[in-house]
TrEMBL record:
Belongs to the class-III pyridoxal-phosphate-dependent aminotransferase family. Keywords: Aminotransferase, Pyridoxal phosphate, Transferase. Its cofactor is pyridoxal 5'-phosphate. One of its GO terms (cellular component) is cytosol. Signal peptide: none annotated. It comes from Pseudogulbenkiania subflava DSM 22618. The lineage of its organism: Bacteria, Pseudomonadati, Pseudomonadota, Betaproteobacteria, Neisseriales. GO terms for molecular function: pyridoxal phosphate binding; transaminase activity. This is Putrescine aminotransferase.
Amino acid sequence: ERKAGQRSTREWQALDAAHHFHPFSDAAALNAQGSRVITHADGVYLWDSDGNKIFDAMSGLWCVNIGYGREELAEAAYRQMRELPFYNTFFKTTHPPVVELSALLAEIAPDGFNHVFYTNSGSEGNDTVIRMVRHYWASLGQPQKKTIISRVNGYHGSTIGGASLGGMTYMHEQGDLPIPGIAHIEQPYWYANGGDLTPEEYGLKAARELEKKILELGVENVAAFIGEPVQGAGGIIIPPTTYWPEIQRICDQYGILLIADEVICGFGRTGHWFGSQYYGIRPHLMTIAKGLSSGYQPIGGVLVHDTVAKVIAESGDFNHGFTYSGHPVACAVAAENLRILKNERIIDKMREDVMPYAHQLWHNAFDDHPLVDDVRTLGFFFAVTLVEDKARRQRFANGGELALRCRDICFQNNLVMRATGDSMISAPPLTMSRAEAREFVGLAKKCLDQLA
Ligand code: PLP
């Protein structure tokens, strides 16, 4: 219901169209249609300005891991704003929230990750990674060791550095990217690229693309490999089991740094604190953001393994940082978020209970569905690929358009899912209950049925 002093939906839309440039949007098309105005949220639900209740099966943008409406986080922000709303940590100062959060992260992170560098976002985290690995090798007397190898359809952010690391050609096309010193290899997407190989054979083949690229570029020029444990924005691409162990072997053998972009996978998405733990890999750097604060405040960073931290620490000034690196309010909120995740055992409970239940629901709904194949679940990731002919693994020529139509059908039915290429993907809050899982999968199935 409209509260006193609020604008009507049409008024919001008109002002929005007149003055607000939306990210990743076709402004003309969007403004002709009018944006949906989201006004409040609780648990796994959003409400729009017309009073519709919407199931948010994307956790915002893969970030609201603890769900909406946690008062403790609002209170942490309020307390910190009154106590110390801002101070920096550039010039020989620190403050309690940044210290508390750093100590908490060191406790949660895998062994050897005792330092964190803060940013405001995942993109800035990956820009930090580029500067840090190049500074690391330069400090060790190898300044030419600069190239970072990344993957097709990887998503590492939208800054010039992040978008260059990323493998999204539609982003490279705007702005003359990638910057020099970034190379891309194939993504480990068996369903699309595996041909006649088994997933396990293909996982090894895809990983060995890294080895080939290192040899082609010369190991003396290669600084690092970066990858998301599970590619998120690229379409929830779950690599075959053989992939990450082989990547680890190659990084070890050639002595290059391994960077895990944990911006989506971190803080519980895979059923573990970090995706690296799920896959048993040992990165040197981990980019974090999103679930770090469950999206309640913009904050990101880089978790730095002792081996790298030591070299950076002994190399004089690291000439990098942001005004809001380690922002006190963002740190206070992130620390409260981590305490809730930890004290309420949200990740363990999800892994032990709702996760296997929801996986079963997803497979029951879609394994035999005529329009989809490659039905994928891992942690609280859920995806399907739209296909024309399952038996022949043949995808639609216009699969991307179909998926966008499917996404719109979902939205009309008050369900937020995303379309990536010809995949329909979802990542609900980790607090989703069994009843909510039934509602989510039921809605998703209803929408896919409408596409038929
Ligand atoms: N890395 C990954 C894996 C992401 O999914 C994203 C955002 O979706 C980013 C980096 C960029 O984070 P941000 O949008 O906070 O800059």
